[in-house]
Amino acid sequence: MQLSSVIASPKLLLQFFISTIQCVFASFSFKVFYWKTGTCKGANSPVDSVAADGKDQSKDQLATTPTSVNYHFTRKCNYKCGFCFHTAKTSFVLPLEEAKRGLKLLQESGMEKINFSGGEPFLHDKGDFLGKLVQYCKQDLQLPSVSIVSNGSMIREKWFQKYGDYLDILAISCDSFDESTNQLIGRAQGRKSHLDNLFKIRNWCQQYKVAFKINSVINTFNIDEDMTESITELNPVRWKVFQCLLIDGENAGETALREAEKFVISEQLFQEFLDRHSSVSCLVPESNEKMRNSYLILDEYMRFLDCREGRKDPSKSILDVGVREAICFSGFDEKMFLKRGGKYVWTKADMKLEW
Ligand SMILES: C[S@@+](CC[C@H](N)C(=O)[O-])C[C@H]1O[C@@H](n2cnc3c(N)ncnc32)[C@H](O)[C@@H]1O
Ligand code: SF4
């Protein structure tokens, strides 16, 4: 439409005015629609993100890709850590083939790292269920990183012989190098030594070429400890140090199976613990703020758990609705995931370790 002819004719002028308003309105409503649905719509869908405004597509796509997933396939455990935030609310475990199907869906959606956790992951089927999933993820799905977090009490050398090749990282949780403190926390099975297991597993990791990691929860019982010497001796690739976290319905509130309030420490005390261990170069600190929403957590039904409200709100299962729909309800904060160093060298072959 020529501008001169528009100005000359009042009818054309009116038409031009109406179409301009329509155009502005359409562009505005599209932006509002994208703003409301963009992050999830963009998930794993380059087509959707390109159609948006051509600017934030890669960012939106990244924000909802399940790059690193924690699958808590069982809630059962043989320990009784008083602060535990993933408790035995059910005894359900998926059939092996269903668990594999879910892991394949995640891999097809961009998963690069899987971490198996619990409950105690070595408890179910004496560690064979876990071993089969570890092997499947490395051999069939070819995931760059396969890891486990365990209390270490149920691991046998035979497991390493059978499945060690398929595992990149094994993290063992240890909150104290004083056996009586572990007993007080509940990080023990009966009178058995947690520390003997820890050192034994560290040696197996070296022998079977698995990267060894340690997780510690800092709480009122171990806050004054100096762990520098023991950690230096064990020499893990990473030492994750968590500030004890409360989750409603897990370790806090009326319906919870644990009462962790008496374990909770302030930000300042947590910082003092970190300062005391500043010479330990592999230490990776995780305050409550860093920890809460920076993990993609899948429960025993393969539902994402959203911790934004201070409890674990489940999505629908990825087995029923797929990853793309379920992940919208994960509450995952990708920025915090990156800020806490969630993405690191996680393939054992890339770690340049001396075995
Ligand atoms: C829930 S456990 C499951 C795996 C295994 N049973 C273990 O203890 O390592 C996973 C990790 O969460 C940590 N954890 C448990 N309760 C916590 C809490 N309240 N705050 C911070 N970390 C916690 C454990 O120490 C462990 O490193
Ligand atoms: S933190 Fe303790 S009680 Fe909780 S799952 Fe791990 S070993 Fe079991």
TrEMBL record:
Domain of life per record: Eukaryota
Keyword Transmembrane helix: yes
Positions of the Radical SAM core domain: 63-283
SMART domains, per the entry: Elp3
InterPro entries membership: Aldolase_TIM (IPR013785), Elp3/MiaA/NifB-like_rSAM (IPR006638), RSAD2 (IPR026372), RSAD2/Viperin_antiviral (IPR051196), rSAM (IPR007197), rSAM_sf (IPR058240)
One of the record's GO molecular function terms: metal ion binding
Co-factor(s): [4Fe-4S] cluster
Signal peptide: none
GO biological process, one term: positive regulation of immune response
Membrane topology: Peripheral membrane protein
Entry's localization field: Endoplasmic reticulum membrane
Annotated keywords: 4Fe-4S, Antiviral defense, Endoplasmic reticulum, Immunity, Innate immunity, Iron, Iron-sulfur, Membrane, Metal-binding, S-adenosyl-L-methionine, Transmembrane, Transmembrane helix
GO terms under cellular component: endoplasmic reticulum membrane; lipid droplet; mitochondrion
Main location: endoplasmic reticulum
Gene3D superfamilies associated with the record: Aldolase class I
Membrane-crossing segments per the record: 12-35
One Pfam short name: Radical_SAM
PANTHER family in UniProt: RADICAL S-ADENOSYL METHIONINE DOMAIN-CONTAINING PROTEIN 2, S-ADENOSYLMETHIONINE-DEPENDENT NUCLEOTIDE DEHYDRATASE RSAD2
Family affiliation: Belongs to the radical SAM superfamily. RSAD2 family.
This protein's name: S-adenosylmethionine-dependent nucleotide dehydratase RSAD2
